[in-house]
Amino acid sequence: MQKTENTKFELPEDLKKCVDFHGHLCPGLVYGYLVAKEALNLLELKRSRDEEVVAISENDSCAVDALQILLGTSIGKGNLILKDYGKNAYTILNRSSKRAYRFSRNQSYRYSGEPKEEFDRLDAAISSGAATEKEKRRHKLLKASDLLSRPFDEVFSTKEIDFFMPPYAPLARSEACAKCGEMTMSTKMVAPEDSKRICIPCSRETKTG
Length: 209
Prior knowledge:
The protein is α+β, with helices and mostly antiparallel strands. It is 37% helix and 18% strand. The protein has seven helices and nine strands. The strands form three sheets. A five-stranded mixed beta sheet has the order 4-3-5-6-7. A two-stranded antiparallel sheet has the order 1-2. A two-stranded antiparallel sheet has the order 8-9. The model is unreliable at 1-5 (pLDDT under 50).
């Protein structure tokens, strides 16, 4: 366990791994950490080596990094799907058991940690645009600490949903773009009127040229 400076709590080792990957501790990262931990428990998961586990995030926030570290989901493997709706909601699927849960952050969350007066002061400073960088970091730390101290269902609503099979990561050969010559995934290429297959950036240049 690593003690966090200027706080009265210690980081769990698995959260420390998330912080090391992400670069800092913040509420967004903790949201993803909480979801990942709950999904691991409910779905009886192990960290995904391939595409056994799929995470669908409805935002592109800091939370995604915790999903990557704890669940083994990533863009490169094709088992991390980003749907940037700006919603603090996540769906985790287990291909083996064919079960899935969706987690959505509760509207009722309010900070209740200590020191409450300090948090409220920092919150007001941030809202007014007057907060210093040090105050912003302290605000994040206090909120992260509070989130970690709460029961999961105080922060997120959990719903088991009908399982659906996400497509596996597509594989396709590469071929040279007829215009720039760069190797491109064949299924991502387009064919303008002259039927020469070109990459997407070149097709856009052709339309605007």
